[in-house]
Amino acid sequence: MKWTKYATESIVIAGGQGGGSSLTQLYHPGILFVDNLRTVYVAGSKNQRVMRWPQGATQGSVIVGGNGEGAEADQFSTPIGVSFDQYGNLYVADEWNHRVQRFSLE
């Protein structure tokens, strides 16, 4: 949900379609990051993925994970943090795999 200054109502910017794994849904969203283009990145701890929601989008896209829970390079076990470096690399803290992974999103 987004609240603008002086707003009396909030705006849904990601999810809002109940919990689930479709591209219009989030399932226990935990951590988010908003970049300078107002793109929202959301880590979901139940569906083990990080999604990208560009400003004004009606659905997101899975950018990493989403392949079930596990320890492979394309899997997570409770992603709990997301961040970017100056080169645009995405870092994801993966709680139960006890690791931080770096992804190039070129």
- Looking across the biggest beta sheet, what order are the strands in? 1-2-3-4
What composes the largest sheet?
4 strands, antiparallel
> What share of the residues does DSSP label as strand, in percent?
25-35%
Order of helices and strands: EEEEEEE
Structural class: mainly beta
What portion of residues is helical?
under 10%
Q: Cα distance, first to last residue?
A: 28 Å
Mean model confidence by pLDDT: 91
Number of domains: 1
Named at the architecture level, the CATH assignment is Beta Barrel
Q: Rounded to an integer, what's the Rg over CA atoms?
A: 14 Å
Q: Given this structure, which CATH class is correct?
A: Mainly Beta
Total helices: the number is: 0
- Total count of strands: 7
CATH fold label? Thrombin, subunit H
Shape descriptor:
globular
The poorly predicted ranges are: none
